[in-house]
Each structure stands twice: as C-alpha cells, then as structure tokens.
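User: Good morning. I'm curious how phosphoenolpyruvate would be positioned relative to this chain. Could you predict the structure with it bound?
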Amino acid sequence: MENSKEMRTWLDNFGLDHPLVIAGPCSAETEEQVLKIAHELKDTDVTVYRAGIWKPRTRPGMFEGVGAIGLNWLKKVKEETGLMTTTEVANKDHVKLALEADIDILWIGARTTVSPFIIQEIADALCGTDKIVLVKNPVNPDLALWMGGLERLYTADIKNLGVIHRGFSTYDKSKYRNNPEWQIAVEFQNKFPDIPLICDPSHIAGRRDLIFDLSQRALDLNFDGLMIETHWDPDNAWSDAKQQVTPKRLTEIMKSLKIRKKTTDEAGYQTQLETYREQIDDTDQLLLDALGKRMKIAASIGKIKKDNNVAVLQNKRWSQILNTMKIEGEQRGLSEDFISRVFKSIHQESINHQQKVING
Ligand code: PEP
Ligand code: MN
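Assistant: Good morning! Here's the predicted structure, ligand included:
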C-alpha cells in the first residue's frame, strides 16, 4: 500500500472545506424514521447518511436490524435529500445486496475487522469495486489486524478506502464504552498519512455528553472526518439509545467545533515553532542522558547483586519507586497512567541491564 495517496482521491473529490461528516441513526428502524432524520440532516454539513441495516449485536435477543428492506429506504434518502448513503456489511450476501441497492459507501464493523476470514470474503465479493469502503478498527487494540483488513481490500483492487476509529474494548469499564487509545490511531496515521481517518465518537463514548469533546480531540489530531449517530428521538432508539444525539444537537456540535489548520504561513508562527522545537530537542537529549545514566547505575547494582548472590527483582523496592514517582509526577501535571507506563518500561530496561551483568 505504498501509494496511499490514491486512496484519498474520493475524499478530495468531495471538495469539502470542513471535515467530512457522516451522520444518521445507529439502526434503520422504520421507513418513516429513516426519512425523517435524513430530511433534518439535509441542509447541514452532513455529506453522508448512515444507518445500520444488519446489526451485529454482542448478545442475542437485541434488535438485529431490519435487513434488506432497509436498503430501499436508503435509496429513498438519496433520491429525496441528495445525501450519499452508507451501511455496514458483514458478509458477502450483505455486499451483494448493498451493491445492488447502489449504497455509496460500505463500512466494515469492528466485530468483522477482527476476522481475517470474513474480511477476505468481503474483499473477494467487492473485488474491483469503485465504491468507497471504510474499515472500522477491530474491537481489540491490534494495529496489525486493522492494517491487515485494509491490505486485504487493497489487494482485491479496492482503491477508495478509509478507516474509522471507534475505540477498543476493555474488560475494566472506564468512562468510555470503548477506550479511545488515541496513540493507535495516531500510529496508523503515521504509517498511512494519506488514508482518510474518521473518528466515531459515538461508539467511543457510549453516552451523548462526551461526543463534543471527543470530536474536538479527533480534529485536533488531524482526523479527516466524524461519524456521529443521530436520531430524531434518541432515548427511544432501538439500539445505542444513550449515545445518539438529535439532528439539532449535531448541528450545534458542528458549529462549536474548532477546525485548526495543519500549518500556516503567518509571520511569527514559524519562528516561534522553531524555538519551541529546539527546546523540545534539548529536553529530549537531557532525557536520553538521564536514561543512559540510570542504566549504568542499574548495571553497577547488578554487579553487587551478583557478588552477593541476590535476586534481580526486588518487588518491595520497585513498588516504592513507582508510588513515589506517581506522587511526584502528579505535582508536575503528569497522569498516573503515563507515569506507570513510563516507569514500568524503564524498570524493565533496568532489569535487562542487571541481568546482562549477572548472567554474562
Ligand atoms: C455501528 O456503527 O452502529 C456499529 C455497530 O459500530 P461498531 O462496529 O463500531 O461497533
Ligand atoms: Mn451503534
């Protein structure tokens, strides 16, 4: 996928002067509901109308979608409002029906991206299509699996591609339904800077009051667009009721979002930026020096542990260090989670240095 530039042609061709907005209900419920919401979104910044027809539900017994009949409703949306349409496909039969109904964009859901077999089945069914295909991240935080899904489609000669970041499942429940793990999306962006990256704050949040902040965060990270679940009566939606917003609220959200420029030629900006970047580089050098010094000390400790036949890992000492660093980190505005990750990694490296001395 060296030439990822061609994958964003479809988005460039939309000619938007703002991020792409995909909106519409989690599920198509009735023809009336689908059309009512579409008409309310018609003269807004929304370009693409979404509605799930086949719903992958974690537990059986929940609303599993209206099925193929909903495709006709999406056709009507296109005819009556001019909005483009998108729905989720999860197997080759869905693909066939969606292509027949001339759905403009197909998305692959998080529960599908986890399965290379199903992705391959979908890629084969789509082979050579010029439809736009958006791949949601897999439910588990695995960048390779996400990239793999995209590569299978690309290899099947599907060139109008994009990805949707919808957060990742965790066993421990946090305030989010799906943990954003922004670093994974950022890493994706670093690997494939031209592939359109869209954020789905609705499925990250799981609740509507978090959608604005998540959307702003995504735009600050240079995401190309947003997919936001929108329903005329969110509380009575047949699926994902807590996270949907009304078309009115969606318009407010879009008005309040700040779109920051990726770069600017304004005088002063470049010189200021250079100055800060030099400071960052200097600080990084100091960090490296400090880390190098710490590992040398660790090696010396390794030597005396060896001479005295003492185990490398001293659990009590390690938890003391971690606790102290968390407290001191907080005083410097560093989150507990960050400190814990950084020091676990430093500690592991120290152990490696000690072990090298002890074993060799
Ligand atoms: C959806 O978009 O309604 C959906 C089911 O999303 P996900 O695959 O991200 O859970
Ligand atoms: Mn949903």
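The domain at 269-358 is CATH 1.20.59.10 (Chorismate Mutase Domain, subunit A). Residues 26, 52, 56, 109-111, 136, 166, 203 surround phosphoenolpyruvate (ligand 1) (CB under 6 Å).
Let me know if you'd like a different ligand tried.
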